[in-house]
């Protein structure tokens, strides 16, 4: 149940061209901003959008010329697309029925799946009588009841409110863990990707910009988009020892020496702000101007302009003391030991 | 107001005193029975042919689709009498298909009840096709995609997902179609002729009654109106509201 | 009033018989009286002949414009009773005319101006070899009649009863023209239609005379209408239709003199 695919879809003003693999039992997340082509990639895997080039191979079998109904690929759609005229039970039994399973057997199977997602009491309900979280679970059961070799999830949690999302995400994680086939998950929410996926594939503008596990991606983002997703300040420059020169002339000092093209990343909490130029230790010190002040969890996130754009997290108390408001001139420092540098 | 005034005209002029004995005339019952039968059969034919056609128009791309859609509306624009002549030219004894049908199967449509059904279906089917196509366009095509990912072929997806979703549209279109078939006159009298019990439907009976006896025509019209309104009202509650 | 009417009628007759053209003082004087628009409602079977007669009448009465409305006699009668603005009514049966006179819409007595007889219309060349009314009873032969509610249908019923011949038609058409067109299109093998209709369609059909038709001769009455916007012209037209030259046109079309 290994997926191996190259997906090329040409659209006016947009080209999707990505390679994708997934091993049995593996969960791969396609993560990227809206319009990056994630959903197109998913649709082309399912056979709902035709490929202009490339291939889809599942278990060594070429599928790219097979119609969707012969691919044995289960899909959970973003808005679930539960058939409104059928009960939850018949929605789930639909797939087996299409595979010529006798009605009774199909219903038994559906009942079993609904029990597994914890909806035994709701088998007779129509989709409009279900809550968002329940509908999501019916959609999952419906996709899994066809015994797919590959499971595709399109923004499976996007339609849910924050509270339901938390519970559903945990439950989904459990179901994906027990699913023997490969799973490809599309999301723009880094938390979903980090929690559900074994491997992240970052897609921007139709291309893959980074592949890795959660730890690598969060520690060493390679694009602004990823850095912002994981909450890091990210800069790209040229390393000479512990100094990384950025293209506009500014340089940052890091702890670990390197040579050649390099990224420097540090979290907003590593940035300290001072009303006047601090004396002594920090190697990275520069004057900056506050552009915005916004709540960020318990802290305040301060966006600064200056030689480099940077985000800093400070406590509300510090913000009051420093009189932080847009337009305020300030000094920013980052300790070399709090930065991460890695080859670009 | 404008639409219902003629109805009041009919009610006002109706020969109420002689109504009971007029209603029991055997001709009326035969024409009414034939009208209901042929309109229902014509609707069935239209459903069988029209729904798949509407699906093709709404869901697929093929060369000349715009032209086909325009052609579907031809019977709406064509004067029904001309439609009847056109049907004769195709299905008549000397017609393109008719002569073949006649020599091969010995089947001749004109002057038969089947001919009435053909004429009515020809005129009434566009109402169904247009209304079902509209319903299909309004329905979310992604349900069909979802069905496909669950292993449903196009026909299964259409039958088990799309059709139930557009059922109100199909019902409404079917009713329009039925009502139009019930009132069909021009194409029927031209193609199927007029013979009591076999091809004389209510509208034909009304027309001929007008030649001699206006009161009889009014009675016939009222019967047609009452029956059709009753049936449409009953069906509407059952299907469209649901 | 009466004087003008007679004058107009006289002028019309004179004009057509060639005694006076538009220069004749009598004609121009009466034309002044009978000027304007004349609306004539006439049975559909009169279409071809009345179109010609109308032209002749206009030529004889400069300034008069004749407009015809042709249709089934009964339908036209209903229109007149309902108050349609018309000057003259020419019907295909006395029964239909009676509905108009009984409603009090006629000015004066209707006069029969021509008669029409039934013939058997068959396809050109008479492929089925039909000679008599009795031939129509042959099995497998498709025959169209008019519905009994319309004049050609009642005439056919009369003729068949007089014969007596019993035939089973495949259809009872709503008027004589549609019965005829079923023959033209080859959908039926024969139809009982008026001689005039068969003659008008001479390119496509043949009319076969049969003696029994004498028992069902159809009289065509004409009358000026009471509510005629132009009574003088109306009366002039009625007189004109009954004059020699107009009759010639009608006989030409297959009608018989009364």
Structural description of this entry:
The complex is a heterotrimer of chains A (344), B (242) and C (258). Chain A has helices spanning 38-46, 88-98, 103-116, 132-144, 162-178, 190-196, 214-219, 224-230, 316-322, and strands at residues 3-11, 14-22, 27-31, 53-58, 61-62, 73-76, 150-154, 182-187, 199-204, 207-212, 233-245, 251-266, 271-274, 284-296, 299-305, 310-314, 329-334, 340-343. By secondary structure, chain A is an alpha+beta fold. In chain A, strands 6-7-8-3-9-10 form a 6-stranded mixed sheet, with helices on both faces. In chain A, strands 13-17-14-15-16 form a 5-stranded antiparallel sheet. Chain B is mostly helical. Chain B has one domain (27-240): MetI-like (MetI-like fold, Orthogonal Bundle). Helix content of chain B is 77%, strand content 0%. The longest helix of chain B has 34 residues, at 26-59. Chain C is elongated and about 55 Å long. Chains in contact: A-B, B-C. Chain B binds chain C through residues 85, 88-89, 92-94, 110-111, 189-190, 192-196, 199-200, 204, 207-212, 214, and chain C through 72, 74-75, 78, 142, 144, 147, 149-150, 169-174, 178, 181-182, 185-187.
């Amino acid at each position: 149940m290994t997926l191996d695919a190259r997906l090329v879809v040409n659209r006016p003003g947009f080209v999707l061209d990505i390679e994708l693999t997934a091993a049995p039992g593996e969960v791969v997340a396609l993560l990227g901003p809206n319009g990056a082509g994630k959903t197109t990639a998913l649709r082309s895997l399912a056979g709902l959008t035709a490929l202009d080039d490339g291939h889809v191979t599942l278990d060594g079998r070429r599928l790219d010329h097979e119609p969707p109904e012969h691919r044995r690929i289960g899909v959970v759609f973003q808005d679930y697309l539960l058939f409104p005229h059928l009960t939850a039970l018949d929605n789930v039994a639909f797939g087996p029925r299409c595979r010529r399973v006798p009605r009774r057997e199909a219903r038994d199977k559906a009942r079993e799946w609904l029990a597994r997602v914890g909806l035994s009491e709701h088998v007779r309900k129509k989709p409009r009588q279900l809550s968002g979280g329940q509908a999501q679970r019916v959609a999952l059961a419906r996709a899994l009841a066809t015994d797919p070799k590959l499971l595709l999830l399109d923004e499976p949690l996007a339609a849910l409110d924050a509270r339901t999302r938390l519970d559903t995400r945990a439950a989904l994680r459990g179901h994906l863990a027990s699913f023997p086939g490969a799973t490809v998950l599309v999301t723009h929410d880094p938390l979903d990707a980090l929690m559900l996926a074994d491997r992240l594939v970052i897609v921007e503008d139709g291309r893959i910009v980074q592949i890795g596990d959660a730890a690598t991606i969060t520690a060493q983002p390679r694009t602004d988009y990823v850095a912002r997703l994981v909450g890091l300040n990210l800069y790209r420059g040229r390393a000479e020892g512990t100094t990384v020169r950025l293209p506009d002339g500014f340089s940052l000092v890091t702890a670990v020496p390197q040579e050649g093209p390099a990224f420097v990343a540090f979290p907003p909490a590593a940035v300290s702000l001072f009303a006047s130029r601090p004396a002594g230790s920090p190697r990275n010190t520069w004057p900056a101007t506050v552009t915005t002040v916004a709540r960020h969890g318990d802290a305040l996130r301060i966006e600064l302009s200056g030689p480099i754009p940077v985000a800093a997290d400070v406590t509300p108390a510090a913000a009051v003391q420093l009189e932080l408001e847009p337009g305020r001139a300030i000094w920013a420092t980052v300790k070399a030991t709090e930065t991460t540098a890695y080859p670009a | 107001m404008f639409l219902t005034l003629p109805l009041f005209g009919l009610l006002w002029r109706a020969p109420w005193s002689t109504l009971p004995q007029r209603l029991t005339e055997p001709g009326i019952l035969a024409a009414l029975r034939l009208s209901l039968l042929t309109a229902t059969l014509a609707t069935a034919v239209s459903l069988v042919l029209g729904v798949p056609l509407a699906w093709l128009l709404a869901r697929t791309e093929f060369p000349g689709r715009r032209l086909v859609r325009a052609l579907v509306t031809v019977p709406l624009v064509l004067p029904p009498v001309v439609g009847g002549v056109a049907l004769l030219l195709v299905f008549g004894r000397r017609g393109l298909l008719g002569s073949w049908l006649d020599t091969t199967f010995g089947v001749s449509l004109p002057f038969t009840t089947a001919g009435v059904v053909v004429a009515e279906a020809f005129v009434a089917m566009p109402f169904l096709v247009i209304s079902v196509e509209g319903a299909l366009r309004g329905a979310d095509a992604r349900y069909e995609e979802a069905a496909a990912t669950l292993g449903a072929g196009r026909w299964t997806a259409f039958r088990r997902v799309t059709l139930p979703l557009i059922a109100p549209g199909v019902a409404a279109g079917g009713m329009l179609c039925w009502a139009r078939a019930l009132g069909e006159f021009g194409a029927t009298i031209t193609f199927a002729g007029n013979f009591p019990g076999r091809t004389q439907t209510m509208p034909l009976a009304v027309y001929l009654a007008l030649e001699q006896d206006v009161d009889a025509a009014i009675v016939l019209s009222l019967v047609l109106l009452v029956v059709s309104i009753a049936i449409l009202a009953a069906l509407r509650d059952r299907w469209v509201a649901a | 009033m009466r004087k003008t009417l007679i004058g107009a009628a006289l002028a019309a007759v004179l004009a057509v018989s060639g005694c006076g053209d538009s220069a004749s003082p009598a004609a121009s004087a009466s034309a002044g009286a009978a000027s304007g628009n004349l609306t004539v409602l006439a049975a559909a079977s009169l279409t071809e002949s009345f179109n010609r007669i109308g032209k002749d009448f206009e030529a004889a009465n400069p300034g008069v414009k004749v407009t015809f409305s042709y249709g089934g006699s009964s339908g036209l009668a209903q229109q007149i009773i309902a108050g349609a603005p018309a000057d003259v009514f020419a019907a295909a049966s006395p029964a239909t005319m009676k509905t108009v006179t009984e409603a009090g819409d006629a000015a004066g007595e209707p006069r029969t101006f021509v008669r029409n007889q039934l013939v058997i219309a068959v396809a050109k060349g008479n492929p089925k070899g039909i000679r008599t009314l009795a031939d129509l009873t042959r099995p497998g032969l498709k025959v169209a009649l008019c519905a009994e509610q319309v004049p050609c249908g009642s005439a056919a019923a009369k003729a068949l009863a007089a014969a007596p011949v019993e035939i089973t038609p495949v259809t009872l058409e709503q008027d004589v023209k549609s019965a005829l067109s079923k023959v033209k299109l080859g959908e039926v093998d024969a139809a009982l239609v008026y001689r005039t209709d068969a003659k008008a369609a001479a390119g496509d059909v043949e009319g076969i005379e049969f003696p029994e038709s004498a028992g069902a001769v159809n009289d065509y009455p004409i009358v000026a209408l009471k509510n005629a916007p132009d009574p003088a012209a109306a009366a002039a037209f009625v007189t004109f239709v009954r004059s020699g030259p107009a009759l010639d046109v009608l006989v030409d079309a297959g009608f018989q003199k009364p």
